[in-house]
Design a protein that fits this description.
Nuclease_put_TT1808, hydrolase, 12 strands, 3-stranded mixed beta sheet, 222 residues, globular, single chain, Uma2 family endonuclease, endonuclease activity
Length: 222
């Protein structure tokens, strides 16, 4: 398969069209490192908690996206490190099969760079996400150098996002900023507040309770 064919799969005509079963499994390789795993889990869990009342999105990490125009599992598939699809049913999936999801592609993609993937993420994948997926927001982040870059699709081409005074990049699709906090990529609200993890929320609650006790106030009565 040539790069041009992968970027524009519609240009390839298969002789034998085989319709695979709907429950395709993800074919993605293991995580690059423990840090990559921690980063993806962080993005996934924080968004799911923040959007816990919503049922109109799907978010996943290291999951295969099948997008063959011939509905073939054996051709045209990619596995972003993290992606979000909006306007779909929130349910468990074994993989994302475009032809079974009303032609929907991710609204947001984040790739976590490594020495072995950085060139592909910055070039080939970026071109596929721009020209085939038409994904509106694309980001990449290097957990070692802390390089963060983002792009928004405008008139069919990715335009680089400019960081604000906090070094954060705005995602129109998520309605959130993405920025680096303590060496990890995190979400920030439009008011620049860090979207906390459940553990961070518990720590905040404990600190507040301790302060109330110092004031002779029972936190359980507040």
């Amino acid at each position: 398969m040539t790069i041009a064919q992968e970027i524009n799969p519609q240009t390839t005509v298969g002789q034998d069209v085989i319709f695979p079963p709907s429950d395709l499994y993800s074919d993605e390789p293991p995580w690059e490192s423990d840090l990559h795993l921690r980063q993806i889990i962080l993005l996934l869990t924080c968004l799911k908690w923040l959007w816990r009342e919503r049922n109109d999105f799907y978010a996943a990490g290291n999951l295969t996206i099948y997008y063959s125009p011939h509905q073939l599992k054996s051709e045209y598939f990619r596995g972003p490190d993290f992606f979000v699809v909006l306007g779909c049913e929130r349910k468990t999936r074994k993989s994302w099969v475009v032809w079974e999801e009303h032609g929907k592609y991710p609204n947001v993609i984040v790739e976590i760079l490594s020495d072995s993937t950085a060139d592909t993420d910055k070039n080939l994948k970026k071109t596929i996400y721009q020209d085939t997926f038409r994904t509106p927001d694309y980001f990449w982040f290097d957990p070692y150098t802390l390089e963060l870059a983002g792009f928004h699709l405008l008139d069919g081409e990715y335009q680089p996002l400019q960081a604000n005074e906090y070094g954060h990049l705005w995602s129109q699709q998520l309605g959130l900023y993405l920025g680096v906090h303590e060496g990890l990529l995190r979400y920030f609200t439009p008011e620049h507040q860090l979207v906390p993890t459940l553990e961070e929320m518990a720590q905040q609650a404990e600190r507040l309770a301790a302060k109330l006790r110092e004031l002779n106030i029972d936190p359980d009565t507040v």
